[in-house]
Amino acid sequence: MKTISNKKRTIYPIILAGGSGTRLWPLSRSLYPKQLLPLSSERSMLQETVLRVTGEGFAAPMVICNEEHRFLVAEQLRGIDVKPSAIVLEPMGRNTAPAAAVAALLLAGEDADAVMLLLPSDHVIRQVPKFHSALKIGVLAAGKGALVAFGAPATSPETGYGYIRRGGAIKGHEGCYKIDRFVEKPDAETARKYAETGDYDWNSGIFMLPAAGYLEELERLNPGLLASCRQSVSAAAKDQDFLRLDRDAFTGIESISIDYAVMEHTKKAEIVPVEMGWNDVGSWSALWDLGKKDEQGNVVSGDAILHETRNSYIRADGNLVAAIGVKDIVIVAVDDAVMVATRDNAKDVTEIVNHLKRNNRDEHAVHSKVYRPWGSYQRIDAGDRFQVKQIIVNPGAKLSVQLHHHRAEHWVVVSGSARVTRGEETFLLEENQSTYIPIGAVHSLENPGKIPLKLIEVQSGAYLGEDDIVRLEDRYGRGAPTNANS
After folding, report:
1. Quick one: which of 50, 280, 288, 358 has the fewest CB in 10 Å?
2. What pLDDT sits at residue 9?
3. Domains with residue ranges and CATH for the chain
């Protein structure tokens, strides 16, 4: 690969937002994973990640995400007034090496000298100025052809992180070091030795890569993977604001991390260690570490009453939580689930998620509040032949034109205004007004106003499943529903 010119480089942020969200259940779920949640601030982790790499020196971000999360990602970017260069949709997760290849292929077509910054969307960085200083070091090294990893110095024996053993300093690349080896998550005793030596950094999963150089190394080390990525990109389809990768080509791609596919085998790998307050928020215990603690060492979020409770993480999303005489525990209560664990065992929550999957329960995937491109709905109550939901429709948004074979619906407007189409008639409903949608009637619901439309929907009928929706027209390009509403 030719050395990139010494000009001031624009950094192309590539935001990896395809996580499935199991380690922070019950708050994080596969259809609303942790990167979309406000866990460390008032903004979501995705929003914080994007804002961290916005401004002078950065190009518009490219976001790579799961197809199921596309509207949520787009809405969160609009919420912080950031227009991405692309939102690339993966048909299924295939780990970081293919995602980086897709990004590199797209960038190389626009800028032959592009340097991309690969960023997980669900990490916390508390010292952003130090992070930016490390990026300046990394982009210079990547401009000379290096594949750069960023490491957080291992200051404690963490068993949940991967490690990188740092080699000698690299002449001509100030602040960069050779990578001696990558190490998988160690046991407690090995992790203690790593922390004591001072030669190891935690593998942050953040990489600075010359797009062309990464593709060259991938061609050498895993040409089959790169060929499949090329095919998936060349056959990709533009879908509204999204770039949808070709499903057939992408399905055959090996699921492999950039560490295994390239970084452990290339001679161009370097590491920039940086004390940036990094945390991958991989467990509830990590959120306790990050949180602001009271005099008893507790981190509390939401409506909670504590008595004789110490060193615990308590999160109450909607329900009162009372904790008495406990210590070193995690309590997370949402409207449809409560999780209680010791802080040391909270990482094992994935075992609960796997149990839910095996038993065909949907609490691992969806919340009682479900987000849609037009807004959201939340089930309030259900029983024999009835179901009650609260529906929120964003300003200017419209649900699909549809009908139901087995249920009727009653709508009561709580606030805002609704434009209702029922059969051949269209009319407006204001606050405290209502209407009825008979079984089989073609209908649609739209918010023509400037504030959210809130209404209560009462469904009645012999069958109330979400697959009893026949979409006749949909502005969001969706077909028949799968565990979805309107």
Report:
1. 358
2. 83
3. 11-279 (3.90.550.10), 284-358 (no CATH), 369-473 (2.60.120.10)
